[in-house]
Amino acid sequence: MKRGAVSLCLAAALWAGAVHADPELLRGRLSLPANAELPATAMLRLELFDMSQATARRLILLEQPAAGRARPLAFVLPYAPPAGNLALRAVVYADGQVLFASAGAQPLANTTDAIEIAVGAAGERSVAATLDDTDWQLVDVGGVPVRTVPGERTAYMVLLDGLLTGGSGCNKLMGDYSHPQPGVLRFGRVASTRMACPPELQAQEAALFDAFARADAYRIEDRTLSLLIGDKVLARFFARALP
Fold this sequence. Notes:
Immunoglobulin-like; 9-stranded antiparallel β-sheet; disordered N terminus
């Protein structure tokens, strides 16, 4: 039986107990590898994960035909900004076999901006991100999911040659860091521009600065970077773009 779209706000309500009465539309595009051929029975499936759980729970949001459509494949979902720490994964399958899948679950920020998802051939080894020269998009800090405002880029950072550049979701960030050996990471002085920010972004920026000040280690698992103090996670980032 063909499944229809399930509202992201409904999915968030199932996990977080919060219902948004007037969902908007989240539009996105799925990019397939060049020259990828799809059988007539190919289907696109979008899966929602609750990343705040130790074992991420999954909900299938959408299944629709993928063959014979213009590329990149467009999709539309009823959407409200997530109440939890949610992420989206895409799978293209046919006759019970996965053909293509995204390398990981892509975090959903508090925004209705269009999203882009790329998939690779099933069974391909995903490329692990490296600490340096990777566009790290904030997932959560201090246990609080990332916040953003329309028209502003989600908080992120790039580390390269001892210099940090990025943004807090409102202000630009700049600073320095060192990682003298694998697993060790320390930030020096980190500064920001002084734009007026909404209260929730001010709190996010303060929490991010606190994470930078306290971090003494890091861990990378596939495309997720965790800033640590000892074994405690201070903030998590997702590799939006690999070097």
